[in-house]
Design goal:
This protein has ten helices and eleven strands. It is α+β, with helices and mostly antiparallel strands. A hairpin with a 2-residue loop joins strand 3 and strand 4. It is found in: Cytoplasm.
């Protein structure tokens, strides 16, 4: 059952509660998101578009898919901070089966494909990518290295090589990962901004392999995204110091 939601992300619970009181007193959610949220989605007033269960971190996912629609939810604590969430629409399972499981990232990529030189389409896609939590298939290092039981276990992301190029495999939903693998596999949730800051050259990123929403990110593209994340964090740090 996909849902459409918007959120505001801040560092402290106190600030989250303060903003909740402000919105409940009549402040516009989108205006507060643009002013206060540390998430790239603040440029869209906190709008995350449409996504399916399993695409977001567990605490956020639980709030969106169990919380009341059109009600201010939170504070919800995740590894990123404290969220205020408003679920603006949620489809029932039957409706989800009747329509394609397209999400905000899919729509942003489709818009980018229409005109790859459109600055607005570029900003919308890359911003959504950095804000999306991906399913990264994982491997047990002991199985790869033939280590004996009792050795330290390390969980490694799946990296495949083709024509001398190494690709980090990521999917925007568990359903797409399972369909690609042909079975249920272990995976870890990793935000797009973490992928951008940890995928070092010469590694490429292959997103949604085998689907119409696939895209490859080359090292130069990833380096640019890494710089975007760095500048965003520096801006947020500067804003905190002036407050």
């Amino acid at each position: 059952m996909p849902a459409t939601a918007r959120h505001i992300l801040v560092d402290t619970e106190d600030l989250c509660l303060k903003l909740k009181t402000e919105i409940e007193a009549g402040a516009d959610f989108a205006d507060v998101a643009r002013r206060e949220s540390s998430c790239p989605s603040r440029q869209q007033g906190g709008d995350l578009g449409t996504f399916n269960p399993g695409q977001m971190v567990p605490e956020f996912d639980h709030a969106v898919f169990t919380g009341e629609v059109n009600k201010l939810l939170g504070p919800v604590q995740t590894q990123f901070g404290y969220h205020l969430i408003e679920v603006t629409r949620r489809w029932e399972e039957a409706a989800a089966e009747a329509s394609p499981a397209e999400n905000a990232l899919d729509r942003a990529l489709a818009a980018l494909h229409q005109d790859v030189n459109d600055p607005k389409a570029q900003s919308a896609f890359y911003g959504t990518f950095l804000n999306t939590t991906f399913c990264v298939p994982t491997l047990d290092s002991k199985e790869l290295d033939g280590e004996e039981a009792g050795a330290e276990e390390r969980v490694l992301p799946l990296v495949l090589e083709a024509d001398g190029t190494r690709y980090l495999i990521v999917f925007s939903s568990e359903a797409r990962l399972t369909e690609w693998a042909g079975r249920s596999v272990d995976w870890a949730p990793v935000p797009g901004h973490v992928l951008a800051t940890t995928a070092m050259p010469p590694l490429h990123i292959a997103m949604n392999v085998g689907t119409e929403y696939s895209k490859q990110f080359n090292p130069e593209e990833i380096a640019w995204l890494r710089e975007v994340v760095k500048r965003s964090r520096q801006t947020e740090s500067g804003e905190e110091q002036t407050n």
